[in-house]
Predict the 3D structure of the following.
Amino acid sequence: MKNILITGGAGFIGSNFIPYFLEKYLEYNIINLDLLTYAGNLENLKEVENNPRYKFIKGDICNRELVEYIFKEYDIRGVIHFAAESHVDNSIKNPGVFVRTNVDGTYTLLDVAKNYWMEKPFKYKDEYKGCRFHHISTDEVYGTLPDDPNVLFTEETPYAPNSPYSASKASSDMIVRSYYHTFGMDTVITNCSNNYGPKQHDEKLIPTIIRNALAGNPIPIYGDGKNIRDWLYVLDHCKGIDLAYHKGGAGETYNIGGRNERTNIYIATKICEILDELRPRKSRSYKELITFVEDRPGHDRRYAIDATKIENELGWKADENFESGIVKTIKWYLEKYK
Ligand code: NAD
């Protein structure tokens, strides 16, 4: 049995990842370290809470003493690091906590892992050879793209983060990179596009659209609604993380994205159309609730991922496109908001 530390497992992506991982790998115990900020919710992990191979620890990734204790107590053999402040709007209101958690927190985890696993630079202790640190990151580190559909983010695209959120993630990616180049630590980074699916926090775009529609409230859409994101169903992201963690090259980065570019207004309209079928309003479409609101400052226009590297080298491909994944997602939220 191997003990793997997962951070931020009570958030959206981590809480989709943990049940998937526990079920697939019977030889792993999972230790989930999560501070349970407003974004973490143990309800998302009900299905695994009694699993003998799962342990939850409430705590802060910036707390070095705690992280050191966890490494020693559980003899940690791998890290998959999801914990972060993740909402761009919050990073505009309160950037400091993004720097603390995303930069200091990542540094603390990496540094403790290095000291626990390694004797000196480029020399792992014999019993910890192969122990890997997988950092979960975002395509937002690359900044924004022009509308030209032929231009996509590749792993070679220079970093140009525009929000305090993406700047803090870019910084954390650079620290991870430095631990590979300076200390020879076995690291891997995945940069993923926008995820959607069950268990996402209410504040994010898709739950916001569904919740407001069902309540008969205005559905707020920033600016002209033409901002483009490359939407990926969360389980497809989990499968990409699994592949990169197990088969990715040390020091490599992999972009994960669904080749599903959609404008925000398309997303809102599509959700309204599906709700019109699944939960019709009295003789009116939910589309009437769509309302344009003042744009987010510094709002990136377009993100789109070229996932060729992970597809060709590791055999990843998305199982869902937006139109199939969104139906599953809406059905899950219809249960949640009923
Ligand atoms: P989330 O906000 O839903 O969850 C973050 C989790 O981290 C929460 O459970 C929270 O309690 C925990 N956390 C926050 N600060 C902590 C701290 N100091 N110590 C311990 N735990 C702490 O985020 P998410 O959407 O699940 O994203 C997970 C990761 O994936 C993040 O690193 C994010 O940057 C990245 N990512 C997200 C998306 C997306 O579309 N959601 C896309 C690409 C990459």
In short: The domain at 2-197+231-259 is CATH 3.40.50.720 (Rossmann fold). The radius of gyration is 20 Å.
